[in-house]
Design goal:
The protein is 48% helix and 10% strand. It has one domain. A four-stranded antiparallel β-sheet has the order 2-1-4-3. Helix 3 packs antiparallel against helix 5. The radius of gyration is 15 Å and the shape is globular. The protein is of the alpha+beta class.
């Protein structure tokens, strides 16, 4: 699970401040994307049992990784879906309702990106706590 913190010892107390890394999404990214490129290894090959503190530079890299993966998997190619995206400005993943895995992937990437941006504004770091 991901959260904004200053150290691995400070786990957010509120459930809304925690972002879970869905195992289905993790497995999909490992199987589908890791064989194509190594540029997203920081997120894709994250050890789900270990804790990791992302430094400021790595938080910025995570933002770029999220944007790259959203562009690759979640940006609609069909014109009617692009038009539909305007109906969901705060929840863009809702345009993928016909594909549950892509919807879950898009939601995770958008929320992680937002969390990373928020941590930059708070001058804090992103932590990942493994199982």
């Amino acid at each position: 699970m991901f959260g904004i913190s200053t150290s691995l010892k400070e786990v957010p107390e509120k459930e809304k401040d925690i972002l879970r890394y869905p195992s289905r999404v993790h497995i999909f990214l490992i199987q589908d994307f890791s064989s194509v490129s190594e540029c997203c290894d920081m997120l894709i090959h994250l050890d789900s049992y270990a804790d990791k503190l992302f430094l400021a530079r790595e938080v910025n890299e995570l933002i770029g990784i999220c944007e790259l993966l959203i562009q690759r998997y979640c940006t609609p190619k069909e014109a009617w879906l692009v038009n539909q995206a305007h109906y969901y400005p705060n929840e863009p993943w809702m345009i993928h309702q016909s594909n549950e895995l892509i919807m879950e992937l898009h939601q995770f990437l958008e929320l992680l990106k937002r969390m990373c941006i928020e941590s930059v504004y708070q001058n804090a770091l992103i932590c990942f706590w493994g199982d």
